[in-house]
Amino acid sequence: MKRFLILIIIFICLISVSGCKSKFTYDDMSKVTYETLLDLNGSYIVVAYQANCANCEKLKGTVYDYIKYVEKNPDAMPIYAININMAINKKMLLLKEEDYPSNMIGATNYKNVKIKTTPSIMVIKNKTLIKVISDYNTLTPVTDGKEYFKELMK
User: Fold this and answer.
1) What is the pLDDT of residues 69-82, one digit of tens each?
2) Most buried among 15, 22, 75, 130, using CB within 10 Å?
3) Residue range 22-152, CATH number
4) What is residue 9's predicted lDDT score, i.e. its pLDDT?
């Protein structure tokens, strides 16, 4: 009987842990806005996302895993989200007729940071954009974003 109860408890715990991952949304993350994108000290990651984005959904589980990794590893880069559907962040989006800025890497002014698609993973160090991973911006599929996070978690 004791073993049976222990197995049930373990099973319930496993279900609840996997349920947390499936219920996770980008809205659960700490946020930055377009104007504060480059304002934080040190190194950190920002994931630009939007509602109804299939590739954002594909990346969500990996982002959740990275958040859990950061919680256990205080030396890991913190991660933030930016919702580009919010009015305060709309100027971050390139319009169809605008060219992708060639000077974005190395940007220290948020106005030089633009995206055309989500998700876009931006790495910021000492208030400077040093890396972008995005389908459109860097012609890398969402799997490259997943691989980037997996490398960070090694």
Assistant:
1) 999 999 999 999 99
2) 130
3) 3.40.30.10
4) 58
